[in-house]
């Protein structure tokens, strides 16, 4: 299965992708994670990507598409993949359609108020990137990753100004993809306001319909 998860920052794309990946045994590919790896390096590109991400803007399409195409060529995508955070522009969607077909697009529907609450409480592991929420998905020991025991931190782009910009960028650049994929008969809306288990159950039901 080749699946796209669409939705604004904090809708729960990464969280749902992890559930589907475990259930279906296919990799979850997050362009945000790939860019965070790039940004951690000490190169000119890393500095550029870091600045763009901290503001909550989009990395240019040519860089993003090149990186995604390279990732799809790794040997683990034979049975399919889940794209979390790609495509985010019409140009990226067109570039993707030139290299592969997609089976379904799940559109995570959620209010701005809910995503702001989720992003404000999100904490990630400084080493393995595991995602928690201080109220909804707390670690066993406050501030410490269950998996590797290291400190949890707030993402640089989870500051109020960057969150506002990410939501505005989503509305302007990414939301047009909802119509794009609906017109192609690939899109299914999923209410993303429930618990992770509830959202996963709705996603499974939606995928059976595809
Ligand atoms: P990226 O990392 O993709 O950020 P995003 O799309 O803004 O999405 P998030 O990771 O913030 O949220 P999510 O929907 O995955 O939610 P999560 O599951 O973590 O991208 C970062 C940046 O990289 C971009 O701003 C851009 O600069 C660049 N970039 C990436 N892709 C690009 C592209 N294609 N083109 C150009 N630039 C690109 O959940 C959020 C919180 O809520 C967590 O704390 C979680 O525990 C909690 N939670 C999740 N689900 C639930 C639930 N059902 N109930 C309660 N709590 C929940």
State the helicity in percent bands: 40-55%
Q: What is the CATH top level name of the domain at 2-110 and 174-206? A: Alpha Beta
Tally of helical runs: 9
Give the overall average pLDDT: 95
Judged by helices, strands and strand pairing, the structural class is alpha/beta
Query: CATH homologous superfamily name of the domain at 2-110 and 174-206?
Result: P-loop containing nucleotide triphosphate hydrolases
The count of DSSP E runs of length 2 or more, i.e. the number of strands, is 8
The CATH topology label of the domain at 2-110 and 174-206 is: Rossmann fold
Q: What is the ordering of alpha helices and beta strands? A: EHEHHHEHEHEEEHHEH
In percent, how much strand structure appears in the residues? 15-25%
User: What's the alpha carbon Rg, rounded to whole Å?
Assistant: 16 Å
Low-confidence stretches: none
| Ligands present | BIS(adenosine)-5'-pentaphosphate
Main β-sheet, spatial strand arrangement: 2-3-1-4-8
Largest sheet: 5 strands, parallel
Distance between the termini: 11 Å
Q: What is the CATH architecture descriptor of the domain at 2-110 and 174-206?
A: 3-Layer(aba) Sandwich
Rough shape? globular
